[in-house]
Write a structure and sequence with these properties.
about 170 residues, five-stranded mixed beta sheet, 4 helices, about 30% strand
Length: about 170
């Protein structure tokens, strides 16, 4: 579900689904990707690997979930193909899966950004001026300032959060 929400937000903020290409003369050009190959960081005994769900925008939530599971198993068992680790346009890392709340992920070059997911937990928040217990998951976005600025990154995060808070709006958008 998070991957689908990320893709919907990327479609509205394409600079986060891009790369900065440099030629031999050191000229830089921002390349906006028209495809959505989402890298998913996987913790393995050999260290972090980032398999890529290619064409994720054309897959259902169930297809994405199965592919992420299969790719993660291949990575952990060291049976993954090199091609499955290449071609990402945006990466998601979930340090929350092992209890982390906050992190500062490093961009998976040559991508423009990476999203970090903290552990979801119950927290007291103010809702209409009254304290309520809600599920909260802290999100972190690291991005390349040569490609986009903080205002664009914040707009992307606001859109992503709106999709995560109201999944029905995501289904209507797609």
């Amino acid at each position: 579900f998070i991957i689908k929400a990320v893709i919907a937000a990327l479609k509205e903020h394409p600079s986060l689904n891009s790369s900065l290409e440099t030629d031999e003369a050191e000229h830089e050009e921002i390349i906006l990707k028209k495809y959505y190959n989402i890298g998913v960081a996987v913790d393995t005994d050999e260290g972090l690997m980032v398999p890529v769900v290619k064409g994720a925008d054309r897959k259902s939530i169930i297809e994405i979930a199965k592919e992420v599971f299969d790719l993660a198993e291949k990575a952990r068992s060291r049976q993954i193909n090199l091609g499955d680790l290449r071609g990402g346009t945006f990466t998601i890392t979930n340090y929350g899966s092992i209890g982390g709340l906050y992190g500062t992920p490093i961009i998976n070059y040559p991508e423009a950004a990476i999203l970090g997911l903290g552990r979801m937990r119950d927290e007291v928040v103010a809702v209409n001026g009254k304290p309520e217990i809600r599920k909260i998951m802290h999100l972190t976005l690291t991005f390349d300032h040569r490609i986009l600025d903080g205002a664009e990154a914040a707009r992307f995060m606001n859109k992503l959060i709106s999709y995560l808070e109201d999944p029905d709006s995501l289904l209507v958008e797609m």
